[in-house]
Amino acid sequence: MNQTKNGNKVQVAVLSELTPGVGKRVKVADEEVALFKKGDDTVLAIQNSCPHKGGPLSEGIVSGDHVFCPLHDWKINMKDGQVQAPDHGCVKRFDVEIEGEAVFIYVA
Ligand code: FES
């Protein structure tokens, strides 16, 4: 068995519509999700709402595995959802699976 992922698998994008370093906002069920494609065609998915005051993280500046909130520049790790010091908090992250061109996330 491969690793277990939780939730329902939902297709949210195709790889070619994502641009490395530019977030994309998608809505899945009641969740707003920010997708980020990296240069190696892996994709990270986090809640599209900053834990500070709800800034749209899909519009943030990407640096490696981090995104800077467009409103007040909090730095958030997209792999584990953790806000980086000196600020604190976390956002929800979603498991991602890629099959060919199709990008899926798992939503609880
Ligand atoms: S809303 Fe994101 S840093 Fe303030």
Automatic annotation (TrEMBL):
Under the heading SUPFAM superfamilies, the entry gives: ISP domain (SSF50022)
- Which part of the chain is the Rieske domain? 10-105
Q: Which GO terms describe its biological process?
A: nitrate assimilation
What PROSITE patterns does the annotation carry? RIESKE
Q: Its Gene Ontology molecular function terms?
A: 2 iron, 2 sulfur cluster binding; metal ion binding; monooxygenase activity; nitrite reductase [NAD(P)H] activity; oxidoreductase activity, acting on paired donors, with incorporation or reduction of molecular oxygen
Sorted alphabetically, which keywords does the UniProt record give?
2Fe-2S, Iron, Iron-sulfur, Metal-binding, Nitrate assimilation, Oxidoreductase
User: What's a Pfam family in this record?
Assistant: Rieske
What's the protein name?
Nitrite reductase small subunit NirD
Q: Which organism is it from?
A: Halalkalibacter suaedae
